[in-house]
Amino acid sequence: MALLLALTAGAFGAVRAPAAHAAGGWWEPAARPAPDSQINVTGAPFTGTDADGNVRGFVDAHNHLMSNEGFGGRIICGATFSEKGAADALKDCPEHYPDGALALFENVTGGADGHHDPVGWPTFKDWPAHDSLSHQQDYYAWVERAWRGGQRVLVNDLVTNGLLCSIYPFKDRSCDEMTAIRLEAQKSYDLQAYIDRMYGGPGKGWFRIVTDSAQARQVIEQGKLAVVLGVETSEPFGCKQILDIAQCNEGDIDRGLDELYKLGVRSMFLCHKFDNALCGVRFDEGTIGVAVNAGQFLSTGTFWKTEKCAGPQHDNPIGLPTAQAASLLPKGVQIPTYAGDAQCNTRGLTRLGEYAVRGMMQRHMMLEVDHMSVKAADRAFELLESQAYPGVISSHSWMDLQWTERLYRLGGFAAQYAHSAEGFVAEAHRTEALRDRYRVGYGYGTDLNGVGGWPGPVGEDAPNAVHYPFRTADGGSVVDRQVTGDRTWDYNKDGMAHDGLVPDWIEQMRLSGGQDVVDDLMHGAQSYLDTWKATEGHRPGTDLAAGRAAAASSSEWSLFTSYRPDRAVDGDRGTRWASGWSDDQWLQVDLGSLRTVNRVTLDWERAYGREYRIELSADGSTWHTAWSTAAGNGGIDTAFFDPAPARYVRVHGVKRATGWGYSLYEVGVFGP
Hints:
Blueprint: H1 2-6, E1 41-42, E2 58-63, H2 86-89, H3 104-108, H4 140-148, E3 151-160, H5 162-167, H6 177-198, E4 207-209, H7 213-221, E5 225-233, E6 241-242, E7 245-246, H8 250-263, E8 265-269, H9 286-300, E9 306-307, H10 323-326, E10 344-345, H11 351-362, E11 366-368, H12 374-386, E12 392-394, H13 404-410, E13 413-417, H14 421-430, H15 432-438, E14 443-445, E15 470-471, E16 478-479, E17 482-484, E18 487-489, H16 491-494, H17 502-511, H18 515-522, H19 524-537, E19 549-552, E20 577-578, E21 585-604, E22 609-617, E23 624-629, E24 636-656, E25 663-670
Parallel strand pairs: 2-3, 3-5, 4-5, 5-8, 8-11, 11-12, 12-13, 13-14
Antiparallel strand pairs: 1-16, 6-7, 9-10, 15-16, 17-18, 19-21, 20-25, 21-24, 21-25, 22-23, 22-24
Helix pairs in contact: 7-19, 8-11, 11-12, 14-17, 17-18
């Protein structure tokens, strides 16, 4: 059970399209099932674009509509919809009856004191609740209320965990992760069809699964909800590792990416909770981290390994071993302790992980870097930067925050976990200057149905208590207390118990001094589309150095292989140039003619440069420095500089980082 706990871990310009409709307009279904949840929002959803042609609306960048179908089918109780109606969808798992005593997951995660009222519809005495981690929070009508409150993009991350499924005693289906992902994707399309039927037929509902940015823009302009499919799972494509041995290969990755793309998936995580064959994970913190580490052992046969961090970024600190976590393990196996100054996962992005990242770029998919270890995320950023690839997402506050600008510089999109209104506003203000500099909007990741815990009630007398009814951020709709069955929800008393209370949370954010934050959130839909469109339109630049003549100040001699300078421009990462073992060394490439260049990529071997510069020349004799650094850290370095004409490009080493010389697998030169 300890492992179960650990795994849970304003004014917007003139509108181009008409925004006013008569009551009972297109946003109201022709035939909603009865009885059903109320929406309790009046007024037409805003449509069209602002005076600058930008779409408007909030982005939930991390939600799990269908997680009740994952984890063996009995971790999240209740369904997003049912053809039999609300009473069938919003019911508890059978083992929770009659008093919740066997609701093992609910009880160990603190949502109850060992017992709860299992009855959902129509009374909802004990669930859903902000601290109940095992009950449905994304019933379709609650999602509808979030949409009516201004949400225009929702990323539906298909999710499961094979180990959690296998150790949980109640299940009614396979624990295979890819089988669960396929089912959740199908159920998402089934939900779209279910809503369409309420509105008169295919394509008429407000819930639209989109597979490209143009389609998403069209949906948002119509005032509807653009739903993007993502994947967050521990063993994508079966790529787990056992005793450090990968259980997949490049063919599995290609087939897996192709299958997911065909299903409509456009963003994904490569690792989650446990190290796998693709990458090391960002540790869970404290005692939860200890229990997840026990799960890591049960899943992979190895515990996490840590090392001193190479830079200021670090993974979360793992707590001290506990008896609870130890009880999960075979007799004689002990959970390790870790030095306080060694907070980074030794495991980064593996060779197969790099292959997967490149495969995602080839398919124009967006990479989620949350949950990657610092070492893995750094390498992923290096790969993306080497291709100037904008498709990078941080959807719920798990990326090291010091890399936010690195993400924005590429053209990526960031969202914050749905913390308390005050906490969310404080963190949003911390990064506000960056958003202003890069002219981007903001998002939130609710992680609903994701077993995380959500903002609790503040009380009716709190300074930022929500006063009902209130107007949505665009000013066009009125939101009252939400009613489902016999239960009336009040955000001040209930917190974020389900997705329908997201508009109330955003109103509390405004009341907490966050009008500027709400404005940035309203710009989120356009920023998300900007990242997606740039990802789709990305084309690998032409490497002007490929196959060109190269020269060097020296080349290391070897009896067994050649380290000639041309080995750094032959397109083969199995070969390399290596210099003599002294500081002042250089490698230069003749581009054949005068070209305009603005980017140089360096794929270093272990012998990398600590201090070096990029020099340009038109004639091979007169040089000027286009870029320099005294803080090289190896891996893949990408030097961006203002476009300049050059025929010759030189990498000039000033100071080595090791006792060897300088060694480069590949040097790439690119133009604007």
